[in-house]
């Protein structure tokens, strides 16, 4: 008997290999997606959509006010709200990490309340409840100050937890090394720990900025003048005047002019952070 006859041949595989199954699954998903796109393109009434959302003459009348007024106010509301939220969030984060019990309890209560409430209710509270509780008291900056405060109160609850996590992510040896060099705990925190923490939390903080940019649309519940309108309010007003939704589409595109580049920046920072870890 020859060696070939003695050695049994390996059994033939039945069915598809794992790689073939993945390729088949991917192909099916692409086919379903393409079919959905084609079905949408065939069944949608593009003429009505263009008539309602893409009137060039209406869009042209929005410029330059949609940029110089509405977009400018939106950016201003967002930046000031982010500044208030960052400052307040830093204080709350440090209270959360404090060894003093009442500080930790107050910070925890604040975070749970303002993370649990919708941002809309915060705007209504600032616009209605505060004037009723403190008659004759005006928030500095008028509408701009109210929006900055409302956005800041909402953002601070989220930023506080982000900052706290960043501080705790810094190795403890950094604080010990600073103390051995004669730094006080407070100075070591400000000079050594917090700068390192911000390098860690920069991507989520930038993401919070994107969220605030969209939340600024809630300013309409405070009651604003024509010169204080942001993108959403500006688009809605013109849509009502023209009985057409083109202004809303243009306002949405203006939001994307800010949010898409910011989203790209966040992804780049996250990628660099991962490379640094490797």
UniProtKB/TrEMBL annotation:
It comes from the Bacteria. Its main location: membrane. The chain crosses the membrane at residues 27-44, 75-97, 109-133, 139-160, 181-202, 248-266. SUPFAM superfamilies: MetI-like. Keywords: Amino-acid transport, Cell membrane, Membrane, Transmembrane, Transmembrane helix, Transport. It is found in: Cell membrane. Residues 71-266 form the ABC transmembrane type-1 domain. It is a multi-pass membrane protein. Residues 1-21 are annotated as: Disordered. Residues 11-21 have a biased composition (Basic residues). Belongs to the binding-protein-dependent transport system permease family. HisMQ subfamily. This is Amino acid ABC transporter permease. It comes from Streptomyces lusitanus. The lineage of its organism: Bacteria, Bacillati, Actinomycetota, Actinomycetes, Kitasatosporales.
């Amino acid at each position: 008997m020859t060696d070939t006859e003695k050695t049994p041949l390996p059994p033939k595989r039945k069915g598809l290999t794992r790689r073939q199954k993945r390729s088949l699954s991917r192909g099916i998903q692409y086919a379903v997606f393409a079919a959905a796109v084609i079905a949408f393109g065939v069944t949608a009434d593009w003429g009505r959509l263009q008539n309602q959302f893409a009137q060039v003459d209406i869009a042209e009348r929005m410029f330059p006010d949609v940029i110089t007024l509405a977009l400018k106010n939106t950016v201003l509301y967002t930046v000031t709200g982010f500044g208030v939220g960052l400052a307040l969030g830093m204080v709350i984060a440090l209270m959360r990490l404090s060894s003093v019990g009442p500080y930790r309890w107050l910070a925890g209560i604040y975070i749970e309340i303002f993370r649990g409430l919708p941002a809309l209710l915060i705007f209504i509270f600032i616009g209605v409840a505060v004037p009723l509780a403190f008659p004759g008291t005006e928030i500095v900056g008028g509408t701009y100050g109210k929006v900055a405060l409302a956005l800041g109160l909402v953002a601070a609850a989220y930023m506080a937890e982000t900052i706290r996590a960043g501080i705790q992510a810094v190795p403890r040896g950094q604080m010990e090394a600073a103390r051995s060099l004669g730094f006080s705990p407070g100075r070591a925190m400000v000079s050594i720990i917090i700068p390192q923490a911000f390098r860690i939390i920069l991507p989520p903080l930038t993401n919070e900025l994107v969220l605030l940019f969209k939340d600024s649309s809630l300013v309409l519940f405070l009651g604003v003048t024509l010169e204080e309108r942001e993108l959403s309010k500006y688009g809605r007003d013109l849509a009502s005047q023209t009985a057409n939704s083109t202004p809303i589409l243009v306002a949405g595109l203006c939001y994307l002019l800010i949010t898409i580049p910011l989203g790209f920046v966040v992804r780049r920072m996250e990628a660099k952070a991962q490379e640094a870890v490797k």
